[in-house]
Here is the input.
Amino acid sequence: MPVSPPPPSEDAPETFAAGALVSVRLPLPLGDGYDYRVPDELTLGAGDIVRVPLGNRECSGVVWGPGAGDIEAGRIKTVIAPHDCPPLSGQTLKFVEWVANYAMQPIGAVLKMAMSVPDALDAPKPRIAY
Here is the structure.
């Protein structure tokens, strides 16, 4: 009798291959996430913390899920790079959404509290020792 694989866990992160559209939530008091394209040779998952272009600057945000795809393809920018840190778990993403709903605040405003130390996302600077 063949054994079927176990069903995917509810906490298993959604993954997005190169070229896919992802919704990135930024730690700003915004209502929705922005769509970005996953760069070539990279796979992102829900909860990954990434650097994205925002206007004429770079900003860190969280991959929240699939992109909406409701803007023209020529205007969609590409994710710059993922941060070298662990992703937020599915449970954390749900908690951020719950707090935002409970406090009647945009998800980005609550996400700002969860990502309150942006320098912690960067790799430590090397120390020169003699």
Notes: Confidence is low (pLDDT under 50) at residues 4-8.
